[in-house]
Structure formats: C-alpha cells, structure tokens
Specification:
Structural class: alpha+beta
Largest sheet: 5 strands, mixed
Order of helices and strands: HHHHHHHEHHEEHEEEHEH
Shape: elongated
Distance between the termini: 53 Å
Strand order of the largest sheet: 2-3-1-6-7
Length: 366
C-alpha cells in the first residue's frame, strides 16, 4: 500500500503542470490537495493507521476525480476511478466486513452515477482539451492498475520461490534438507540410473560446540556445506541429514569417481579450514561410500554407506571407506536414516506432519 501511495503521488505530480497550463486552476488546486492527502496517507500508513490512511487517500482522490468528471461531463470515467479505489480497498489490511461494506457503498455510488444525474456538468460543451484531460486521467488509472497488478505478481513469485526453497533446503547450511535429498536419491533409484552415495560426518563436532559454542558450530557447518558444493559437479546434490552429517548424491559416479570426489573434499578442507573469530577451527571428515548397484533397495544402499561411515569412525576418523562392511553392525543413525528414506517415499499428505527438526539437531556421533 505504501508503494501505491508513492506511485499515485508521483503521477499526480506529473500532471500538475498540465492542469495549470491548460487553464484549469481549480482542478490544479485540487491536484495539490491530492498531493497533500497522499503525503498524509503515507505518514498515517507508516504509523499503522491503515484505515485512516486509506480514507484520506481515497477521499482526496475521489474529490479530484469527481470534479474532473463534472468538468468533462463524463460520469463514466468516475466509475473507472471507483474501480481503482476498489483495488486499493481490497489490498488494504482491513477487516473483511469493512471491505465488504465499503464495496457495497462504492457500488451504490456507481449505480447512482449511471442512472441518476448526480454530476451536473460545469460546462455545457466540454472543449477538446477537457476531453484530452479526461482521457489522460483515465489512462493514468489503467496504468496504475497495471503497475499494481504487476507488482503483486512479482511479490507473489518471490515469496513462492522463497517458500519452495525453505521447504526443500536446510535453513542453516542452505543445502537440501533430509527429505529433499532422499527424494532426489529415490528419483534416480526409480529411474534405474546408476549413482554413488557419500555419507559425510564431521569428526568430534561436539567438541567444537562444547569448546567454542554453538555459534562456532554453526559457522563450521555453513563452511562445510559451502566447501562441499564447491568440490562437486553441477549435477551432484548435497543434503544435510543430521546435526553434522551430510549426504552427497553423485549421479553416474562409480567407485573411482566417488573416491576422487571424497579426496577432493578432504584436500580442499585441509587447505581451507573454517575461520571463526580470527581462529582456524580444524575439522576432519569421515566418509562412507556406497554405489547403487550394491543394494536391492535404496534403503540398503544408504545403510551400507552408513556402515562404512561407522567403520571410518571406528578406524580412527578422518577416513574414507568405500568397500566391505556389508554385514557390519549399523550405527546409531541407521534407524533415523531409514526413517527419512521411508518418509521421502511416502505421498506428501502422509508426511505433512513429519518434522524436519532432526536436521537441526546437535547430537554428535563423534
């Protein structure tokens, strides 16, 4: 609404010289009154006097428009002005019953204009200049309606994009959240496409939170997410599936390709540690790799990657395990990962109540 007031203010300023140069001094004075009214409305709106702001703006505008309609002996133009006033009314932050009552009132005014001689002409024969001014005002009203609708569409598109992003991305690291990365893996699995999965876990992450605080831990996670994105191909996907655990989906990657990707990540992290308050927070990564051909179901592949990640942790951390351990015991995260896969494979209405809070958990596997 503030943007509408500013737009109307700008248009009224543009037509002010035209009114005075055409000899319509009274209409020019009413235009100045409009400018003052729009300024007052803007101040009231910013102070959250929404109804008073709208009444002030519409009152000044309708006074100006009514006199102009009488000048040109064209009451139909006033109806178009009422339609724009209706647009403003619907966009205002008012109660629904207030909007309905005001709409009924404006509809009554429109009927009176059409059927009753409520606007006696100020001149018997409007001049060509008067008719041009009438057409100019009508054109400006349409221009304002067009601008308002385009602005509404732009705002709607921006918010829709943000909501879609928030629904599929982790708010801290900006990578995919757990549900989104599992859905993407499920898409490749159902399509029969070969891929590799890399489960990545930050070693001794709990110590960073305990020694430097959760703000430092958040900085490390954000740094790791950016480093993972920079180390991988455009077609690869990264999702946060736990407090400090990430899942990397590598479409078309075999055993060697997945190992090379893991080594690139480790090398980059060694060269670019996270900086926090002027200190380098050294973090190492343990990784477990599994290929899509190593399981009968997607759940089997992810659980295999989790077993290998657990084996990397047990071997002293800062390790990459890509083979064996098919029969090893699963880690404490196995059930949570399996549940995440099942949720991703269910219809949206069945998982609408599933919380994504686990992705922001602080629990550490060490």
């Amino acid at each position: 609404m503030a943007e509408i007031y500013l737009l109307a203010l700008g248009l009224q300023i543009l037509i002010a010289p035209v009114l005075y140069f055409s000899g319509h001094v009274t209409l020019g004075h009413l235009n100045l009154l409009c400018l003052v009214g729009y300024g007052v409305a803007l101040v009231l709106h910013r102070r959250l006097f929404i109804a008073a702001a709208l009444m002030t703006k519409l009152g000044a505008f309708m006074l100006f428009a009514t006199y102009g309609a009488m000048l040109t002996d064209n009451g139909n133009n006033l109806i178009y002005y009422l339609l724009f006033a209706e647009v403003e009314l619907m966009l205002a932050d008012l109660r629904r019953r207030t909007k309905v009552a005001a709409t009924v009132g404006m509809f009554g005014v429109a009927l009176a204009i059409v059927h009753l001689p409520v606007l006696p002409p100020l001149t018997t024969t409007p001049s060509t200049l008067d008719l041009l001014l009438s057409d100019l005002g009508l054109g400006l009203v349409f221009a304002m309606i067009c601008a308002v609708i385009l602005r509404m569409l732009a705002i709607t598109d921006r918010h829709e994009h943000r909501y879609r992003r928030d629904a599929t991305h982790d708010s801290l690291t900006l990578v995919l959240n757990r549900r989104a990365i599992f859905e993407r893996a499920s898409f490749h699995w159902k399509a029969g496409r070969a891929f590799s999965i890399v489960l990545v876990d930050a070693d001794r992450f709990k110590e960073i939170n305990d020694n430097f605080g959760h703000t430092a831990g958040d900085a490390v996670l954000h740094h790791l997410a950016g480093l993972l994105r920079a180390s991988l191909r455009n077609d690869d996907s990264i999702g946060r599936v736990g407090g400090e655990e990430f899942l990397i989906l590598l479409p078309g990657a075999g055993h060697n390709d997945a190992l090379k990707a893991a080594m690139r990540i480790r090398d980059r992290l060694a060269r670019m540690p996270c900086q926090f308050d002027g200190k380098a927070l050294s973090v190492t990564l343990s990784m477990g790799i599994a290929r899509s051909c190593e399981g009968l179901h997607l759940r089997d592949v992810i659980e295999l990657a989790d077993r290998r990640l657990y084996a990397a942790k047990s071997a002293g951390r800062d390790q990459v395990v890509a083979e064996g351990h098919a029969e090893s015991a699963t880690s404490r995260n196995a059930h949570r990962l399996a549940q995440g896969i099942e949720n991703a494979l269910q219809p949206d209405d069945a998982t609408a109540t599933v919380s994504e809070d686990e992705g922001d958990g602080r629990a550490s596997t060490g």
